Amino acid sequence: MSTVQGRLRIAVQKSGRLADRSLDLIRDAGLKWVKGHNDLLYRVENYPIDLLRVRDDDIPTFVADGVCDLGIVGENVLEEGKNGGANASVVMPLGFGRCTLKIAIPPTLAYDGPASLDGLRIATSYPKILRRFLDDNGVAADIVTMRGAVEVAPRLKLAAAICDLVSTGATLEANGLKAQDTVLESQAVLIRSPIAAEPELAELLDSVIERMAGVVSSQGAKYVMLNAPRAALNQITAILPGAGSPTVMPLSGRDDAVAVHAVCQEAVFWETLEKLKAAGASAILVLPIEKMM
Questions:
Q1: Average pLDDT over the chain, rounded to whole?
Q2: pLDDT tens-digit profile of 43-79?
Q3: Could you give the CA distance from residue 283 to residue 150 in angstroms, rounded to a whole number?
Q4: pLDDT digits (tens, 9 = 90+) for 142-186
Q5: Quick one: pLDDT band at residue 249, thresholds 50, 70, 90?
Q6: Burial classification of residue 63, based on how many CB atoms lie within 10 Å of its CB (0-12 exposed, 13-18 middle, 19 or more buried)
Q7: Is the pTM of this model over 0.70?
Q8: Do residues 195 and 66 lie in contact, with contact meaning Cβ atoms separated by under 8 Å?
Q9: Residue 64: which H helix or E strand, with range?
Q10: Which residues are CB-neighbours of 101 under 8 A, at least 6 positions away?
Q11: How high is the pLDDT of residue 84?
């Protein structure tokens, strides 16, 4: 159980690319957090929950050891922190903080797949993930572990290539490097401790997870309402992106047309509306979804 009796704890990144989005998710799940006496601990006003703000590298350990019941962390950090003992389990991906761990090389290095790295030195901040990738591809290479500025390693002759996180690719380009093979696709995930919460907090823990799932499900989703000719219903339903089975209702005084309501899990672009209109749809409304459960 959590180390603080009678309260749930959620570990979030203190600073970095996931910090603000993690707090936004928690707020959108209806947890009204306020800053505590220091910047390490935020308290939730409306539930017995504390937010522990720590280094991202510490989050998997805190959750695995039961110091925190839940945590929000990047998959790259979670994978790098795994060990032979008990580990936190992934509850769900959260859809933000997307990045890719890639092999990157200078223009002077000929590259034709992972085998090109055989016998070379590779710099990275993720030695465990990189070692697994090299072993899976039968590559014998030396790993140079760095905690920052990995991209300068080839220029300083510390390594022939690097394995680093890439989001826009601008940093690699600025250092004359080109991304090659993908080692890991990463995004923020919600993780859960293998140690059960106190019995009186178990229902609250499940509620928090369900609320977060609802927030994640509503991200990018749209509620679409339109009128459609009965004869074109199948065609119009097929155009609606990620709608599944929409709700179809009769229109008052019209036997030849129906009202269609649908939750679209994919983006609804102007081109989509134009296709719906061309198929006979009218009075098309697209509304944002704040919450969904």
A1: 92
A2: 999 999 999 999 999 999 999 999 999 999 999 999 9
A3: 54
A4: 999 998 889 999 999 999 999 999 888 888 989 999 999 999 999
A5: very high
A6: buried
A7: yes
A8: yes
A9: helix 59-64
A10: 76, 126, 129, 163, 164, 165, 166, 182, 183, 184, 185, 186
A11: 63
Q: What is the DSSP annotation of 118-158? A: TT-EEEES-HHHHHHHHHHTT---EEEE-SS-GGGTTTTTS
Q: What is the pLDDT of residue 267?
A: 75
Cβ atoms 248, 182 nearer than 8 A: no
Whether 146 contacts 70, CB under 8 Å: no
94 contacts 72 by C-beta, under 8 angstroms: yes
- Residue with more model confidence, 36 or 63: 63
The three-state secondary structure class of 243 is coil
Angle, helices 199-218 vs 19-28, to 10°: value is 110
Contacts of 69 (CB under 8 A, 6+ apart): 2, 8, 9, 10, 63, 192, 193, 197, 201, 205
Question: What is the C-alpha separation between 60 and 20, in angstroms, rounded?
Answer: 19
Residue 137 phi, psi (nearest 5) = -105, 10
- Among 88, 94, 13, 3, CA closest to 51: 13
DSSP at 292: -
Q: Which two tokens stand for residue 278?
A: 């061309």
> What is the C-alpha separation between 212 and 194, in angstroms, rounded?
19
CB atoms within 10 A of CB 148: 7
